[in-house]
Design goal:
single chain, alpha/beta, Rossmann fold, nine-stranded mixed beta sheet, 13 strands, globular
């Protein structure tokens, strides 16, 4: 039997500032193929090219990746401001209904960074445009300079709910993570359970309560060296297990809390 197919939500780019392209980071594909043990398939995030129904038929699960553009604030009822940054409305038009459809159907997805924020917005939540400007918050953004190793270095603790889903999966009440995001959860969407926080109170781990499938999502980037990192590996292994269960028509991986 073939490995399950994971649709990796791509991002729009300009190569050499003039050639439009859809792309996904190599580390996403490596994490899906080598740790989750699934076939990575980069998805062009544009409703003119693909539909949610088609994607759900072709793919067994989805990785909602990070990306520089942010979810447009109109998606959660707020006006656009300069602080909200750049946008990708085509990606919004794919990922937000995709999340809702997967929750309803029980099809697995794993949200990372922007993907984490997309899950919250899809379920009716809101976002802060720039959390470093909030009183008492640290700067969670990616360092502007340095090597990839320095940019993806572990920078802060994430504390999980005692006995919660992430606590059980990690086998530890807190872990160290990287941090490369500017926005963050303001209000949790309907059925969104915030299961982990940074020391400054920023939401870092969530899932959708009552969902039949895998909906775990994190604000950090576990795809970085996923096969070697003791925090990243169990996340991608659990996602792969859930995706295989879906592909084989078995009972989806279920939350235990």
């Amino acid at each position: 039997m073939r490995r399950p197919i994971v649709g990796i939500i791509g991002n729009s780019h300009l190569i050499n500032e003039e050639y439009p392209a859809h792309a996904g980071g190599t580390m996403n594909s490596e994490a899906v193929a080598q740790v989750a043990d699934c076939i990575p398939l980069v998805v062009p995030p544009d409703p003119k090219l693909v539909s949610v129904a088609e994607l759900m038929e072709v793919c067994d699960g989805f990785l909602l990746t990070g990306g520089r553009p942010n979810v447009h604030p109109e998606e959660y009822g707020e006006a656009e401001t300069p602080a909200h940054g750049a946008f990708d409305r085509a990606r919004d038009a794919i990922t937000l209904p995709l999340v809702r459809a997967c929750v309803e159907r029980g099809q697995p997805f794993f949200g990372v960074c922007r993907g984490f924020q997309e899950v919250n917005v899809a379920m009716g939540g809101t976002l802060h445009p720039e959390i470093r400007d909030l009183p008492g918050r640290m700067n969670h953004r990616m360092p502007p300079d340095g090597t990839l190793e320095e940019k993806f270095a572990l920078r802060h603790l994430v504390r999980f709910t005692d006995g919660g889903v992430f606590h059980q999966l990690m086998g530890a009440p807190e872990v160290m993570t990287n941090t490369l995001h500017g926005q963050g959860v303001k209000s949790a969407g309907k059925r969104i359970v915030i299961d982990g926080h940074a020391p400054d109170g920023t939401a870092e781990a969530l899932y959708v309560a009552g969902a039949r499938g895998f909906t775990l999502s994190v604000q950090w980037h576990p795809e970085w060296r996923a096969g070697l990192d003791p925090v990243s590996r169990p996340l991608f292994e659990a996602f792969g297990k859930a995706t295989r269960a879906w592909a084989e028509g078995r009972t989806p991986w279920a939350l235990s809390a």
